[in-house]
Structure formats: structure tokens, C-alpha cells
Amino acid sequence: MSEHEEHNEHIVPPGVYAVIITTLLILTGLTVFAAYVDLGRFNIVVALGIATVKATLVVLFFMHAKYVPERTKLVIISGIFWLGLLLLMTLSDYVSRVDYRGVRYPISQITRDMREIRG
Amino acid sequence: MWIFLVTEVMFFGGIMLAYTINRHTYFHAFAMGSNTLSLPLGATNTLVLLASSFTMAMGVWSAQTSRKQLLSIFLTLTIILGFVFFGIKYVEYAQKFHHHLVPGKSFDIGYCVHNPSLCPDVKPEELKEEGERLEEAERGDPDLQAHAQLYYSAYFGMTGLHALHMVIGAGLLFWLLKESVGGRFNAEWNTPVDLIGLYWHFVDIVWIYLFPLLYLIDRHK
Question: Whole-prediction pTM value?
Fold first, then answer.
């Protein structure tokens, strides 16, 4: 058995899965609770933060990412890296954009413009 | 499988990014739309899907330890939970059709507020809250109906794509179940169980993000 272990997959015991699923269910309750607390602009930060913790738990334990070979970890990390690049570059463009009048892109301005157009 | 999942991450990531930009731009309409979704149904579905990920993980463990009968049981449980998810999703979609919340000619984000008798399934106090929110949203966004349709297009598009992934996953699970009853998977060879498990967990992760993005906008107040 022990000779085989080095190239065999790591077997995660059921107890670990039970702890993870319990944590996931509690975090779901927490995120619903947090949505009803007025945190201003941080509501979305908290919601996505909790979602990211949940996703990380699923990837590390349910998907065994904690126990896979280095090259598989490289694939996972490269995926997260490219996703981060996509989000960071696009959103930094949107939050920093100004229109021809030098007005910053958002949002309330567009609403005001539309109201003017409609009278 | 991981490389395929990375491409899927970019696929859903791009869609969620587009959604985020629209939500930022048309905040009033998206908050209004989000508050017409049923939080109890959405939250229940989150729990159901998480539970199905757990049974799937236990299925993988059963295969790795050559517990063949247990594997079939866990696969069956995973499929059942998947179908519970579809059932709840069906109830939600049907509700949206009844409430005139499907983008198109008869779309009306204020349908239930203006016709409370036609929405018997929405509680009066919820309607009151929705009415106040509607007034505020109409003040904040002169083109509320159009932008609320944008929200609902995103809702149906994203949950629809997620559901399509689940249909494919359910198909794969049925095949796994058939093979597992035939006793094909054991500690030496269980690659399909492992890989389809990875896919199923990925679909779960997509929902982990969709739930707060779609259901939990501006719920306080």
C-alpha cells in the first residue's frame, strides 16, 4: 500500500467533507443575513468575499486541489490569474473613464443626461 | 479536465463582468429587479446544490475506496438533488412569467405592485416594500422598464446557462450511475467519477457566485 501511495491520488476522508459542507451551509446563511445589514457599498464586498471563501473551500477540498500535483496547481492558478487580469483591466478602465466633457463615467450623470433629453 | 474548467472560468467570468458593469451603470433598475426575485427559493437552491456537491464528493470517496454500492447510492442522491434544483428553478421561472418579468412586450417591473390581485403568491407586506422601492427607482432612473429588462435578460441568460451546464452534468451522472451499477469503478480505476465530480463542483461554484450577484442586491432598507 505505502509503495503505491506516491503515485496514487490522495484520499480525502469523509470527515473532512462533512466539516467543509457544514461550513459551506453556515456561510450561505451568513451571506443572506449580511445582505439585510446596511453596510453601504461594502455589502457587495462582503457578499463576494463570502462567495470567494466558499468557492475556495470547494476547490481545495471537494475538488482535491490541495492534494494534486504541482502542474495541476499551475493550471488552476493560471486560470485564476487570467480571470483576475480580465476583471482588473476592464473594471479599472470603467471606473477611470471620463467622457468628452471631462465628466467621470458613472452613472448618475447618464441618468441626469437622459432626464434632460426627455425634458 | 482542469484545463477545460479554466476555459469555463473565463467564459462565466466574462459574462459576470459584463453583468457587473451593467449593474453598476443601472443600479436602481438592477436593485429593483433583484428584489423581485424570491430569496427563500434562491437560498434553498443554494443549499440544495451545495448538498449535491457533498454527495458527489462522497461518491468520489466511495469509488476511491472501492465501495461500489455506496458509490451508486451517492450518485443517485446527487442526481436527485440536481433535480430538486431544477424543480425549484422551474417554480421560479414560472413565477417570473406570471409576474410579467420576462423581457419582451408585456414586461412590467411594477406589474405586481399595480395589480396585487393578480399576484396572490406575493405577500402584502412584500408588495408594500416593493411599491416604495419602485417609486424610488422610478425617480432614480427615467428608463427603469428598459433597464429592468436588462437585469432580467441577464438573470435568464446566466441562470439559463448555469442550468444548461447542470443538464449536461445530470446526463453525465446518469451514465456514471449506469456504469457504477455494472461495478466498473474501483480503487484502481475511477477516473470518470473523479472528472465528472470536478465538473459538478465547478457548476456549484458558478452558482455560489450567481446567488449573491443576482439575489442579494440592496436587500436591506
Answer: 0.91
ipTM score assigned to the predicted complex: 0.92
Q: Are A96 and A52 within one domain?
A: no
Over residues A38-56, the mean pLDDT reads: 93
Parent domain of A41: 1-68
Asked if B69 and B146 count as a contact pair (C-beta separation under 8 A), the reply is no
Main-chain dihedrals φ then ψ at residue A98, nearest 5 degrees: -120, 150
How many Å apart are CA B201 and CA A82, to the nearest integer?
20
Average pLDDT for chain A: 84
Q: Is A10 on the interface with B (CB under 8 A)?
A: no
CB contact under 8 A, A79 and B6: yes
- The residue ranges of chain B whose pLDDT is under 70 are none
Q: Rounded CA gap, B101 and A1, in Å?
A: 59
Query: Could you give the domains of chain B?
Result: 2-215 (1.20.120.80)
- Buried b / exposed e across B189-204, counting CB within 10 Å, b at 16+? ebebbbbbbbbbbbbb
A14-23 pLDDT tens trace: 999 999 999 9
**Integer Cα distance of B104 and B114 in angstroms:** 18
Nearest CB to A36; choose among B25, B50, B219: B219
Whether residues A63 and A32 share a domain: the answer is: yes
Q: Which residues of B135-152 are buried (b: 16+ CB within 10 A; e: fewer)?
A: eebbebbbbbeebbbbbb
Query: Would you give the end-to-end CA distance of chain B in angstroms?
Result: 44
